[in-house]
Design a protein that fits this description.
Helix content: 40-55%
Strand content: 5-15%
Low-confidence stretches: 1-17
Number of strands: 17
Radius of gyration: 33 Å
């Protein structure tokens, strides 16, 4: 390790004092805030699975039903502890917490997860000061704190981000261990094993750490042997020369495994009563992930498949989800692997960081079940290598001009911030523009996009603002994400009760559960949506008003009357044709908006007997007030239904229906003209009505 690395590392870990203390503390606070705030403010929830499991987990713990804490093979224990306790505290401290919309409750549950993730990034800084030096640690952790993909996975109650930061800390502790020369470094083995235990408690793929730790120890020993080949080679040529190194290796691995096992057992109540079943369930998930592809189709490189998308899936997605700052700096960092001027220990740490990216990606590629978020741990070490590459390349370019170096490094971090922060809160919409615009990437079908349900909250917010929104029924593809934000009822797309339909880009592109919505999509995609949520000029969500296709074959009784300047009455239908007094006439009006209406008008429908007396009436905004005229779009056709109850004393005969529109505050009717342009009297349309019969005995 270089003198700079030793000095900065010792400064970071020793008892601080004076200006160094203040500077170090200030940066730690800034780094924490940069990591915490983007992740905690307005989380974009992906699913409700871990919300439900966390509630069940904490309930089981409170009842001391330890076996009932075995809820998932992931196993997700860390996420369930944190989210479950936050939910319990929210219920105890926040009035009406359990009655709030689910996304608000999940935002509270997310806070402890984000707190741990942010603190982990701060701790990674201090560990990196011992692995490399302070400048590399500063730039690397700032790149990570501002990494849009890392932020997007951290903004939801799930296990991947937690698992990733614990994996990172475990690996960094081991890098400190192999780089330290002092005898008191065994504490890093214990720390590494403890973080590994937390990682395995979060998600099973973190077992990657076991072979990685072996690799770190082997690489360290090989590096030492190559450095002192003349002195070490004779002793290793005899079998006795291997005994001491082998014993030391086994003691280190045993200590690491012991720390991992103790952490896993202490924090997983199910292990206390049924260890065999608990471990079997977790290992069974690994087998299924290796042998079985994802249960939903995957879109990759223009092809939708229900099989393994292939070995390019993770490398391509890694390139797409890194940034225009981190990716070039990562490749620059690779160049320094061949720089012999670099300190041996730093070059070893850099090599092991690169190896982490490559080998973890290879591990995930071996499984048939794939999702880009599964490879999140590799992204963290991309930022570490990128930070190293940026610092050392700029040091070489600036050649000792410290102030210019600091300015250049600040521009690197500012560039990462400029790429990331403007995306708030939809960081998952970021794609590396080195590889093309987001529109070219998504419209070309390279990947489907919308991995975190981006835009569904905006669709729900639009619908929540509509009149009588709690009474609305919405059919949504990604119902678990959408329903968290929607005040009304969320149903299947095919439900006849639906007032609106919400289509999501991710499901449309991948054809997820296509049998439930494909025919509806074919019908509605040619219509004008009520709302399109876009990011980078790419549609993510479409909201459609449910309505039949209205044409000349739909309208049983055509009419051509102009009401005001905005509306045309195309026709109507009614049934029954021969009702009796006291019965209900069902009237359907078919409208067309000539232009975008600007007013909110009330429709009146009056049932008149042969002498012109009113025997039934219905006045309201269209569709019972749930679809007022100001929501209509130009060219839109609307079916509007009314129920007219015939008065019990109504005489028999041929009735008429007088109808039109008026502005409620003034009761002033809109002018009405017929198909020839002639104004109609009383600003109303007279429609032939039912033939009311004598009441039957």
């Amino acid at each position: 390790m270089t003198a700079t690395g030793r000095h900065s590392g010792e400064t970071a870990w020793r008892l601080w004092s004076g200006p160094a203390h203040a500077a170090e503390f200030f940066f730690a606070v800034v780094l924490f805030l940069l990591a915490f705030l983007p992740r905690a403010i307005y989380p974009v929830a992906r699913s409700t699975n871990w919300h439900q499991r966390a509630s069940t987990f904490v309930q089981a713990v409170s009842q001391r039903d330890w076996a009932a804490t075995l809820l998932a093979p992931h196993p997700g224990v860390t996420a369930m502890w944190l989210a479950g306790i936050a939910n319990w505290l929210g219920s105890a401290l926040i009035p009406d917490f359990d009655q709030q919309l689910l996304h608000r409750r999940m935002a509270v549950e997310l806070l402890p997860l984000v707190l741990i993730i942010s603190l982990a990034i701060v701790l990674a800084y201090f560990l990196l000061t011992r692995v490399f030096d302070r400048q590399v640690a500063v730039v690397s952790t700032l790149l990570l704190a501002l990494d849009p993909f890392h932020i997007s996975i951290s903004k939801t109650v799930h296990v991947d981000a937690l698992m990733s930061v614990f994996v990172m800390l475990s690996a960094l502790c081991m890098l400190v261990f192999v780089g330290e020369a002092r005898l008191n470094r065994r504490r890093y083995i214990l720390l590494s094993g403890t973080f590994a235990g937390l990682a395995v408690l979060s998600k099973a793929p973190s077992l990657f750490l076991a072979p990685y730790i072996v690799l770190c120890l082997a690489a360290c020993k090989l590096s030492e042997c190559l450095q002192a080949a003349d002195r070490v080679a004779p002793s290793l040529s005899k079998w006795r020369g291997w005994v001491r190194p082998a014993g030391r290796f086994l003691s280190i691995v045993s200590l690491w495994v012991l720390a991992l096992s103790a952490t896993y057992w202490l924090l997983y109540p199910s292990m206390w009563v049924q260890p065999g079943k608990t471990l079997n369930m977790s290992f069974s998930m690994i087998g299924r992930s290796v042998q079985s592809p994802h249960r939903h189709p995957i879109l990759f490189l223009g092809q939708v498949t229900t099989e393994d998308p292939g070995s390019l899936f993770y490398p391509v997605n890694l390139l797409l989800k890194t940034t225009a700052i981190s990716l070039p700096c990562f490749f620059v960092g690779l160049v320094f692997l061949f720089d012999r001027r670099l300190d041996r220990r730093q070059r070893l740490a850099l090599l092991l960081a690169v190896a982490f990216v490559v080998l973890f990606t290879v591990q995930m590629t071996m499984g048939r079940k794939k999702d880009v978020r599964y490879n999140l741990p590799a992204f963290q070490f991309v930022d570490v290598v990128a930070g190293f590459g940026a610092v050392h390349a700029l040091r070489w370019l600036m050649r000792g001009r410290r102030w210019l170096l600091n300015v250049a490094l600040s521009l690197v971090v500012a560039g990462q911030s400029a790429v990331s922060i403007p995306r708030h809160p939809y960081y998952g919409t970021h794609y590396n523009r080195i590889l093309g615009t987001p529109r070219a990437i998504l419209e070309g079908g390279t990947v489907p996009g919308q991995g975190q349900g981006e835009g569904l909250d905006l669709a729900a917010a639009y619908l929540n603002e509509l009149p009588m929104s709690p009474l609305l029924v919405v059919g949504a593809q990604v119902s678990r994400c959408f329903s968290q934000y929607f005040e009304g009822e969320t149903v299947r797309m095919t439900d006849d009760k639906a007032d609106y339909l919400v289509f999501a880009r991710n499901w449309v592109m991948r054809g997820v559960e296509a049998s439930q919505w494909e025919s509806l999509w074919e019908t509605y995609k040619e219509r004008r949506p009520k709302l399109v949520v876009e990011f980078d000029d790419v549609p993510y969500v479409w909201v459609y008003k449910v309505s039949p296709l209205i044409d000349e074959t739909t309208v049983a009784r055509p009419v051509d009357a102009l009401i005001g300047q905005d509306f045309r009455l195309l026709g109507y239908d009614l049934e029954p044709g021969e009702p009796q007094p006291g019965e209900t006439v069902h009237l359907s009006l078919y409208w067309e908006a000539i232009q975008k209406p600007t007013g909110d008008y009330t429709v009146f429908a009056h049932l008149l007997d042969p002498s012109g007396h009113m025997r039934g009436q219905k006045d309201n905004q269209p569709q019972g007030g749930m679809y007022p005229t100001y929501l209509w779009d130009e060219g839109e056709r609307v079916e509007d239904r009314y129920e007219l109850v015939i008065a019990c004393d109504a005489p028999p005969g041929a009735y008429q229906i007088a109808m039109g529109m008026y502005y409620l505050p003034t009761l002033r009717r809109l002018p009405v003209t017929d198909d020839s342009g002639s104004p109609l009297p009383d600003d109303r349309v007279m429609l032939p009505g039912p033939e009311v019969r004598e009441p039957s005995e």
